[in-house]
Amino acid sequence: MYTIEVYTQDRRRKSGERLVKKEDLAVTRSDAQRIQEAYELAGYRAELRETFVTRTNLLSGREYEERYDTPLACSPASDTYWSM
Asked: Which of 3, 14, 15, 25 has the maximum number of C-beta atoms within 10 A of its C-beta?
């Protein structure tokens, strides 16, 4: 499973761009790359990422999968999660 983030130029922002769309794709890698190329041909910047990453729980040492965009305070792989 992949997630695509689509950005457009926006000079009102400090970074010079803004997020337009974030979409989860249940397709193969080659199909996801074709979708990314279609957005880029339309004038957008598209980032393709794997939706889930493998991390290690800080306390138990077990590996688990979580979304790539999980905030640090919500991830058992960080000190911040366990200090609250």
From this structure: 3
Q: Is the pLDDT of residue 57 over 80?
A: yes
Residue 20 corresponds to which amino acid?
V
Q: Which residues of 60-81 are buried (b: 16+ CB within 10 A; e: fewer)?
A: eeeeeeeeeebeeeebbbeeeb
Q: Report the SS3 class of residue 35.
A: helix
Report domain extents, the chain.
Answer: 1-50, 52-84
Category of 25 on φ-ψ map: left (φ > 0), alpha (ψ -120 to 50) or beta: beta
Considering the entire predicted model, what is its pTM?
Answer: 0.78
